[in-house]
Specification:
Blueprint lengths: L39 E5 L5 H17 L2 E6 L4 E6 L8 H13 L4 H4 L8 E6 L7 H12 L4 H10 L2 E5 L2 E6 L1 H15 L4 H15 L46 H8 L6 H28 L9 H40 L1
Antiparallel strand pairs: 1-3, 2-3, 4-6, 5-6
């Protein structure tokens, strides 16, 4: 049956953006009457944020008064409160004010946190404190979100069009709903030991594919990278306990102290004899220790033993050298006698 509501709509022109969210103004409140109930939200803040909040609280009240929201800073309890007033005209602005004080408590600077009052901006505070039990491992994985010199964080902000702040056990994110979803997935996977660089590569490929209108209605799985999980060998524990062979029978019963005394005969001795035995044992131990100490003291006075072979080798060398010198002297003396005889014959 054809629809009877397909009528011409002269106000529906192609230049109208149907997805645009218009700002809520006082004129949009048809009744013009204040809310019947007061809504309020309270958020605690850490001690180190107290000084900064006191400085900027005047600016916060000025911004929220334009929206008809009252705010209170309690330094005794360490809390911030926002609540509706009779001048509040937007029913959803109280939720935006709640997000504002939540971001300020998580160390987001005021100029950035004020942007949450815009309807196109949303926020998400991701809790990462309980995802990793080991503290050292948690610090290392949290540092991966920042990267060297904050490069990984800057890349994530550019690709997701979101503001990201890592502080303590939380990650504060501001941006569009699609970007918030991506950042939450990346942060949670990073805490599960999946490096953010894999997600950054995937987002870069998706951004390039989105520029091509031909691929708008196709699946992008064939273009996206698929990283295989590697089984990295972990360090083995130092103390490896050897598994004992299983036996169905219980271990043999160990003898009691009284049984051991009865075997050695000590159980039947009198108190006097036991005392004598103990004294004799102590005396023997004392004498053995004295003997060991005496030997250690005598070691300093024992002369070092020289090797007899070295002495013999030295003597042999001296004897060989002396005999060689004597031969040279004799040879030189015989040569001189022969020369003198020849000279005498020539003179004659």
């Amino acid at each position: 049956m054809p629809s009877t509501h397909n009528r011409d709509k002269p106000w529906d022109t192609p230049d109208i953006d149907k997805w645009k969210i218009d700002e809520f103004k006082p004129e949009d409140n048809a009744t013009g009457q204040p809310f019947t109930e007061e809504s309020s939200f309270v958020t605690l803040f850490p001690k180190y944020r107290e000084g900064y909040l006191r400085q900027i609280w005047g600016d916060i009240t000025r911004v929220l008064e334009l929206k008809g929201i009252a705010c209170v800073l309690d330094l005794v309890e360490g809390s911030m409160t926002v609540k509706t007033t009779r001048k509040t005209f937007d029913p959803a602005i109280i939720l935006k004010a709640r997000d504002l004080i939540k971001l300020l408590a998580r160390s987001v600077p005021f100029p950035q946190a004020v942007k949450i009052l815009d309807d196109a901006v949303a926020c998400d505070v991701i809790k990462i404190g309980g995802l990793v039990s080991n503290k050292e491992r948690f610090i290392k994985r949290r540092q991966r979100i920042l990267g060297p010199n904050g490069n990984t964080l800057k890349a994530l902000e550019l690709l997701t069009q979101c503001y990201i702040l890592v502080q303590g056990n939380t990650v504060a994110v501001m941006g569009g709903f699609k970007g918030l979803k991506e950042v939450r997935r990346i942060v949670e996977d990073c805490m599960k030991n999946i490096h953010p660089i894999y997600h950054i590569k995937e987002l870069m490929i998706k951004r390039e594919l989105a520029k091509n209108p031909e691929l708008a209605n196709e699946s992008w799985d064939r273009f996206l990278p698929h990283f295989k999980k590697r089984n990295v060998q972990r360090r083995k524990p130092h103390n490896i306990k050897e598994k004992k062979t299983y036996t169905p029978f219980p271990p043999a019963q160990q003898p009691r102290e009284i049984d051991l005394q009865m075997e050695s005969g000590e159980y039947f001795l009198s108190k006097k004899e036991k005392a004598q035995n103990e004294e004799s044992l102590k005396r023997e131990q004392r004498e053995s220790k004295k003997e060991e100490k005496r030997k250690e003291r005598e070691k300093d006075y024992v002369p070092p033993t020289e090797d007899n072979e070295k002495k013999r080798n030295k003597k042999r060398k001296h004897v060989e050298f002396d005999s060689h010198v004597e031969e040279l002297v004799i040879e030189s003396a015989g040569g001189k006698e022969k020369r003198s005889k020849k000279e005498k014959k020539e003179k004659k």
